[in-house]
Every structure is written in structure tokens, then in C-alpha cells.
Amino acid sequence: MSAAKILLITGVSSGFGRALAQEALAAGHRVVGTVRGEQARDEFEALAPGNAVARMLDVTDFDAIDGVVADIEEKVGPVDVLVNNAGYGHEGILEESPLADMRRQFDVNVFGAVAMMKAVLPYMRGRRKGHILNITSMGGHITLPGISYYCGSKFALEGISETVGKEVKPLGISVTAVAPGSFRTDWAGRSMVRSPRSIPDYDGLFDPIREARQQKSGRQLGDPAKAARAMLEVIAHDSPPAHLLLGSDAIDLVRQKLSSLAQEIDQWEALTRSTDG
Ligand code: NAP
Fold first, then answer.
1. What's the 267 CA to ligand 1 centre distance in angstroms?
2. pTM of the entire predicted model
């Protein structure tokens, strides 16, 4: 095993956060996991009494974040790895989905993750060491109709992650954006926020997409335990990547996107270049 570390993972009640916590604990690391309820807290701490430490935190409680991180640094120890995992998917046609739903999506998936980074970075900088994993999504590279707010939030987190990675690399800190494909978590089940349908013009396009996602929930290709082991491998690496895709669906779809983007850029190159001078 690599040297024991302290991981701070947001959202350990289910899915990737829970799986990563379990694999990290099994590998001998200590895990501080954030939860939003007493039952989740008790269940998490029971995984490995003493080594699984829960902290109550909603990542949109921005004023609380610095205090929670300071308390962890003081009472548990130095955070070696922050995993910004807490997040959820909003599903809905853009025109049908209230702006408030978009704000909430960005508050959790983007602003929450940024606030967490801002809280741990002073400590990591002081030690000239640390690793931040931001769980984005293949939806941070590719898009499909009906999840514009979600893709927007994950594209934002990909961009922020890559940028901050360049800012902190000279200070000994790594940042990796981890973009999973479809995995068997609660993402498309209890956690998903679905805006109601209201505009029949979108029925033909969107109804089959919504239905297919509901059907597939729980039967996705990806195994969260395997994703967790892959993340541990990246955490142990001397020079971790800025971006890591997880799952064969993710790599196939992102490759297709990159090649069609390259084709489109080529096709419009003359017009693109015509604006210089
Ligand atoms: P999940 O099983 O629904 O887990 C989501 C976790 O995030 C839960 O622990 C949840 O806590 C927590 N959470 C949600 N909102 C929060 C908030 N405001 N403050 C604190 N914690 C919050 O789904 P998951 O798939 O593991 O999701 C983890 C991450 O992976 C998300 O960022 C998601 O977008 C991303 N992702 C998932 C997939 C996939 O196919 N599953 C693919 C790509 C990316 P509660 O129990 O309190 O709700």
C-alpha cells in the first residue's frame, strides 16, 4: 500500500463517495466524509470506527465550509486529498426548466466544489503538497438534449479544475478532474431533479431520453467500486493527470466529440482565420 493519507470526500452517503471511502479505508487511509443527515453520519462512521470520520455539511452552506475544514485540520489531521464528489443531476429541457433550478445546480456542482477548494488550498499551500479530485462527468466534455444545466455545471467544473491545476502545480499541489461515464449510483434515481414537461414541441426528442434514463437507472455499465480503485491509483501517482475519464462509454463518446469538433474547426477554418488584422 502507498503511504496512509487523509482523504476529505464530500457526499459519502452513497454512490462514488461511499465507494471511494470504502476502498480508501480498506487500503489503510483515513477518510473524513461529509454527510447531510444523522443516519448517513452513523452509517458512515460504522464503516471503520476511528478511521471513518463524518462531518455534517451541505456544500451550499458556503459560510460553514471554512470552519468545517479548519476543524478537520485541527482535530483529524492534515487533509492530503480533497475529493469534490457531492453533486447531482438536473434533467429537463432548457426552455422548460426554471432558472432557479440552474442556480441550484451550479450552487451544488460548481460553487460548492470551488468553496471547498478555497478552504483546503491555504493548508495544502502551506505544506507544498496535496491533491484535489473534482468529480465532473463525461457530461463535462459531451452533451445531449435534456441535461443542459448539468452539462453546463460539469463543463464549468472541468474548466475551473484545469485552470486552478495550473495555478497550484508550482506549489506542489495536483488537481485532477475525474469524468465518469454512466455508473450504478443513485445519480439517476433518488438524487436526480427532473423538471416537469410543459411544451409538447419537445415530446418527440425528449420523452424517449427521459424514459431511457429511468429504465437504465441501476443497470448502468460502470461499477463504482472499480471507479474508486481507479481513483486511488491516481491519488497514489507521482504525476497525476489533469483529466481522467472513467468507463468505456466515456472514452468512446468523448473521442467521437473530439473528432467531430476537430472536423468542424477544419471546415470553418477559413472564416475563423479571416478576422485577424
Ligand atoms: P449519488 O449516489 O446520488 O451520490 C451523490 C452524493 O452527493 C450523495 O452523498 C449526496 O448526499 C451528496 N450531495 C448531493 N447534494 C449535496 C449537497 N448540496 N451537499 C452535500 N452533499 C450533497 O450519485 P453519484 O453518482 O455517486 O454522484 C457523485 C458525483 O458523481 C456527482 O458529482 C455526479 O454528478 C457525478 N457523476 C455521476 C455519474 C453516474 O453515472 N453516477 C456520472 C458522472 C458523474 P445526500 O445523500 O445527502 O443526498
1. 39
2. 0.98
